[in-house]
Write a structure and sequence with these properties.
The chain crosses the membrane at residues 44-65, 379-408. The protein is of the alpha+beta class and 427 residues long. It is built from twelve helices and 13 strands.
C-alpha cells in the first residue's frame, strides 16, 4: 500500500533522475559544475530537437499532404436503387455524370391547375348568359343589375377562359424548355430546385397576367371610352351632352374605380332597390365585377331573389335553373379581383418524378475508395520515424556532442579565476 511518504519519495527520485540525466557525459566523468551544466543543457536541447524532428514529418503527412484516393472506381450505367446505395456509402466522393446535358421538363414534371369552381359552373355557360340577356330590356333603369348582368357574367366567363389560356400556354412553354444537368442532382436537391423553378413560373405568369389586365383597365379609363350601358357616362339626347356617372360621390371621369352596391328594382319607377349580395355596379362592367364577390351564387336566398326578378321562356327553349355553388375549397367572400390575380386557380398540383429524371439522365458514376487511407498513412509514418531514428537522430546527437565537447574544451582551457578575499581591518 502506497503511503504519502512513498509517493513523495518516488516523485523526488524522478525529479532527481531528470535533473541529472546526461546523454553527453565526459570520460572520465567530470565533477565540475560548469561542465555538468553544459552536458545536461545539451541533453535537453537534443531531446527537444529529437521530438521536433519526429513530430513535424508525422503532422505534415497527416494534415498537410493532399489525400489522393487509393483508386478511382468507375461504374457504367447504374440503376436507381444502385445509385441510392452508392450515395449512402460514398456521400462525398460519389460523382455521376448524365449522358445528356439537358432534359425536357415534360419528361419528369406534370403540372395540373385546379381552377375555381365558378369556371366550370352553369353561371358561365352561354345558356345562363342568354337568359340574362332576355331580361335586360330597355324598360329597366340604368343601374338595375338585370340590365348589366349579361355583360357581368360574360366578363366572368371571359376571365375564366383567358386564365385557362394563359395557364395552358405557360405549362406548354415550360414543357418545351429543358433542365440543364451536367451531373445528376440528389433527390432532395432536385426536388427543391424544381419546386423553386415552378414557383417562379407561377409568379411570373401571374405578374404578366396582372400587367396585361392593368394596362387594359388604365387604357379604357384614359381614353374615356363611352360604355353602351351608360355605366361611366350618361348621354343627354336633348342637349347632346355627356355627363360622368357618379357612384357614392366618386366621379367616373376622375377615377375608374367608382362602385356602388348592385341592385334590382321591382318596377322601373320605384326608388327602393333590392341589393344583390356581393355584386357591385361600377364605371365599367369589369371594374364592377372585380370589386364584387360570388357570395350570392352560394346563397339560396340571394339566388332565389335574383331568379325571381328574371322572366324565363316557357316554350321552345330548354331552361336549366341554376343551383347554388357548393363552398368546398376557397372562401366565398373573396373578391373576383383576387381570384383573377390568381388566374382563377385555387391550387396547383405538381408531380415531380425523380425516377423519370434519373432514367433520362442515365448517369455514369465514379467514386473514390478511401477506406484504407489510414493504413497506408500509418505505414508511411512508421517508415519515416524509423528513417529518422536510424539516420537523422544519430547525426543530430553527433553534432550536439561535438558542440558540447568544444564548449567543455573552452571551459577547461579558461584560467582559473580566484575570487578576492576580503579581510576586516580592526582599528
Amino acid at each position: 500500500m502506497n503511503t504519502p511518504t512513498q509517493r513523495s519519495g518516488f516523485c523526488n527520485n524522478c525529479i532527481h533522475f531528470l535533473h541529472n540525466y546526461n546523454l553527453f557525459p565526459s570520460a572520465p566523468a567530470s565533477t565540475n559544475r560548469n561542465e555538468l551544466f553544459v552536458q545536461q543543457l545539451s541533453t535537453v536541447i537534443y531531446i527537444l530537437l529529437s521530438i521536433c524532428v519526429l513530430t513535424l514529418p508525422c503532422v505534415y503527412i497527416l494534415y498537410c499532404v493532399d489525400k489522393e484516393p487509393l483508386y478511382l472506381q468507375t461504374i457504367g450505367s447504374v440503376r436507381l436503387n444502385q445509385y441510392y446505395q452508392l450515395q449512402s456509402e460514398f456521400p462525398t466522393s460519389l460523382r455521376c455524370k448524365c449522358s445528356k446535358s439537358s432534359i425536357a421538363y415534360k419528361s419528369f414534371v406534370e403540372m395540373e391547375p385546379r381552377f375555381h369552381e365558378i369556371c366550370t359552373s352553369y353561371f358561365v355557360k352561354e345558356d345562363w348568359i342568354e337568359i340574362l340577356a332576355m331580361n335586360s330590356n330597355a324598360n329597366l333603369v340604368d343601374n338595375d343589375f338585370r340590365k348589366t348582368a349579361p355583360q357581368t357574367f360574360q366578363a366572368l366567363q371571359m376571365f375564366c377562359a383567358w386564365s385557362k389560356t394563359v395557364v395552358v400556354h405557360q405549362i406548354e412553354q415550360m414543357n418545351a424548355n429543358e433542365y440543364s444537368t451536367a451531373e445528376i442532382s440528389s433527390p432532395a436537391d432536385f426536388r427543391i430546385d424544381i419546386a423553386v423553378k415552378l414557383d417562379r413560373l407561377r409568379l411570373s405568369t401571374k405578374a404578366n397576367f396582372q400587367l396585361s389586365l392593368d394596362m387594359i383597365r388604365k387604357t379604357t379609363h384614359i381614353n374615356g371610352l363611352f360604355s353602351a350601358l351608360k355605366t361611366n357616362y350618361a348621354l343627354n339626347n336633348k342637349s347632346v351632352t355627356i355627363t360622368p356617372q357618379s357612384y357614392g360621390g366618386c366621379d367616373c371621369s376622375l377615377s375608374p374605380h367608382c362602385t356602388q352596391q348592385a341592385s334590382i328594382y321591382a318596377h322601373p319607377y320605384l326608388t327602393q332597390p333590392v341589393n344583390i349580395l356581393g355584386f357591385y355596379h361600377g364605371c365599367t362592367i369589369i371594374e364592377g365585377l372585380l370589386r364584387s364577390d360570388l357570395r350570392c351564387l352560394y346563397n339560396h336566398r340571394c339566388l332565389d331573389l335574383l331568379l325571381s326578378g328574371l322572366a324565363f321562356p316557357t316554350k321552345g327553349v330548354h331552361v336549366k335553373f341554376p343551383t347554388p355553388l357548393t363552398w368546398i375549397r376557397s372562401p366565398n367572400n373573396v373578391s373576383v379581383e383576387t381570384l383573377v390575380d390568381a388566374l382563377m386557380v385555387e391550387s396547383w398540383y405538381s408531380t415531380i418524378s425523380y425516377a423519370n429524371y434519373f432514367e433520362q439522365c442515365n448517369p455514369t458514376c465514379s467514386y473514390e475508395k478511401m477506406e484504407n487511407r489510414w493504413k497506408y498513412e500509418t505505414i508511411g509514418i512508421i517508415f519515416i520515424v524509423s528513417l529518422i531514428i536510424g539516420s537523422i537522430l544519430p547525426v543530430l546527437k553527433l553534432i550536439i556532442s561535438i558542440i558540447t565537447n568544444l564548449i567543455l574544451f573552452c571551459i577547461r582551457r579558461a584560467p582559473n579565476q580566484v575570487a578576492p578575499v576580503m579581510t576586516n581591518i580592526h582599528t
